[in-house]
Amino acid sequence: MKILIVDDFSTMRRIIKNLLRDLGFTNTAEADDGTTALPMLHSGSFDFLVTDWNMPGMTGIDLLRAVRADERLKHLPVLMVTAEAKRDQIIEAAQAGVNGYVVKPFTAQVLKEKIEKIFERVNG
Amino acid sequence: MEYDDCAQGDVESTLKIHARQLVDSLEHGDFGEAVQLINDINKVRDRGLYHEVGKLTRELHNAIVNFQLDPRVPHAKEVSQIADATERLNYVVTMTENAANRTMDLVEQSSPLVNGIGSEAQRLSADWGRFMRRELGADGFRDLAKRIELFLASSERDSVQVSAHLNDILLAQDYQDLTGQVIKRVTQLVTEVESNLLKLVLMASQVDRFAGIEHDHAVLRAEQEQQKKPSHGEGPQIHADKREDVASNQDDVDDLLSSLGF
């Protein structure tokens, strides 16, 4: 299971990386926005994408849309972990095809639940 | 402001008097005087306009001097309060980032120590159980005794280490005090700038009044709305629990998503 973590703040990437490691996912890579994430996704055979929304360059919602529009990436499960909490935005992300939505600040428990739920649905 | 109202009142009453005189002279067929009066009216209006523009310019000048924004002044960058505030906020970003990294370093160094103590204690506990049930031979017991001795020494050493890390984690939170002070000062500056801007806006509206300019507020608001498109991202929401259009916690998000069929 190879996971790409996309967030412009290195501390947040580190927190997510540590939480994922505690959940048993040790194979992770990091990108600081959509522009750097997309080429990595194209060449890296990732199984899961965790992305922030608000980032300079390419935002998380645009990254999500780019992934869904790409023939080879469109089935990649995407979890959004973001401070963006407006109802309109959550609906926008859902319509763009997000698999899970976690609002910051979050707990290890919430992250675990959402990831497990996504894998249940993907495998089931 | 009292003086302003007075000047404003003067201009208005002069205009009223002139207007009445204009009607009178037109009714009496005195066109020469009428044209003269129209000129006078224009002059009164212009004087008012110049007066307000003058005030606005002076206030702008004051604002530039107060906040030391003039880029032509030598060392403008060092003395400008806005540049200073920007630098202070950058300092906050650096401080908080350093503290977060320092804390995570220490947690990452502590976890293997604690996990090591835990798992070795579990193994020893299992073997101790075998010893108590007399399932262990003499060699086995010698081995167990040796491991217990090692374990006691290593847990003593590791707990000193973890305790030192915990202390350092505590100390790494000292950024809160320093950044708090910096943010308070910047907040104060923002409040000052806002009240000065408001004053300028009020003065500019007086200029608009004399010049007869009207802004289409609906269009201005629409432009602003346009800039606030949600896909650009807004960052964390303040007072999320009091707002209808914002999910205040993860349960809210989950409810919304499940109502959409997730």
From TrEMBL, chain A:
Keywords: Cytoplasm, Magnesium, Metal-binding, Phosphoprotein, Two-component regulatory system
Primary location class: cytoplasm
Secretion signal, residue range per the UniProt entry: none
Domain of life: Bacteria
Cofactor field: Mg(2+)
Record carries keyword Membrane: no
Subcellular location: Cytoplasm
Positions of post-translational 4-aspartylphosphate modification: D52
UniProt cross-references to Pfam families, sorted A to Z: Response_reg
Any GO MF annotation of the entry: metal ion binding
Response regulatory domain boundaries: 2-119
GO biological process, one term: phosphorelay signal transduction system
Name of the featured protein: Two-component system, chemotaxis family, response regulator CheY
Organism whose genome encodes this protein: Pseudomonas borbori
Automatic annotation (TrEMBL), chain B:
Superkingdom, taxonomy of origin: Bacteria
E.C. number(s) listed in UniProt: 3.1.3.-
GO cellular component: bacterial-type flagellum; cytoplasm
Subcellular location(s) per record: Cytoplasm
One Gene Ontology MF term: phosphoprotein phosphatase activity
Pfam families with a match to the protein in the record: CheZ
Keyword tags: Chemotaxis, Cytoplasm, Flagellar rotation, Hydrolase, Protein phosphatase
InterPro entries recorded: Chemotax_Pase_CheZ, CheZ_family_phosphatases
Record-annotated site: Enhances dephosphorylation of CheY-P: Q181
Feature: compositional bias, Basic and acidic residues: 223-232
SUPFAM superfamilies with a match to the protein in the record: Chemotaxis phosphatase CheZ
Function recorded in the entry: Plays an important role in bacterial chemotaxis signal transduction pathway by accelerating the dephosphorylation of phosphorylated CheY (CheY-P).
Subunit comment: Homodimer.
Protein family: Belongs to the CheZ family.
Name of the featured protein: Protein phosphatase CheZ
Source organism of the structure: Pseudomonas borbori
Lineage: Bacteria, Pseudomonadati, Pseudomonadota, Gammaproteobacteria, Pseudomonadales
